Amino acid sequence: MKIIITQQEAMEKGVWKEVAKIFGVAQEDEVWPNETYILTEEQARQLGFIS
């Protein structure tokens, strides 16, 4: 299973720092609110999206 989340959704859910770390996004990188990130099932579990 794959979970797709946008940068904006990650910000709203309070997990953007973790998502950015997973994907190697630095603070100085330009990021669009609708930019999508595909999480593996394990990553989604670690972030609390699924149990």
Give a nutshell description of this structure.
The protein is α+β, with helices and mostly antiparallel strands and 51 residues long. The chain has helices spanning 7-13, 16-23, 41-46, and strands at residues 2-6, 36-40. A two-stranded antiparallel ribbon has the order 1-2.
What does this structure look like?
There is one protein chain. By secondary structure, this protein is α+β, with helices and mostly antiparallel strands. 41% of the residues lie in helices and 20% in strands. The protein contains 3 helices and 2 strands, in the order βααβα. A two-stranded antiparallel sheet has the order 1-2. The radius of gyration is 10 Å and the shape is globular. The mean pLDDT is 94.
| Main structural class | alpha+beta
> Poorly predicted ranges (pLDDT <50, ≥5 residues)?
none
Question: Any idea what the radius of gyration is?
Answer: 10 Å
How many beta-strand elements? Answer: 2
Number of helices: 3
* Shape, per Cα inertia axes: globular
Largest sheet: 2 strands, antiparallel
How is the quaternary structure best described? single chain
Q: Helicity level, as a percent range?
A: 40-55%
- Mean model confidence by pLDDT: 94
Order of neighbouring strands in the sheet with most strands: 1-2
Distance separating the two termini: 13 Å
Sequence of secondary-structure elements: EHHEH
Strand content: 15-25%
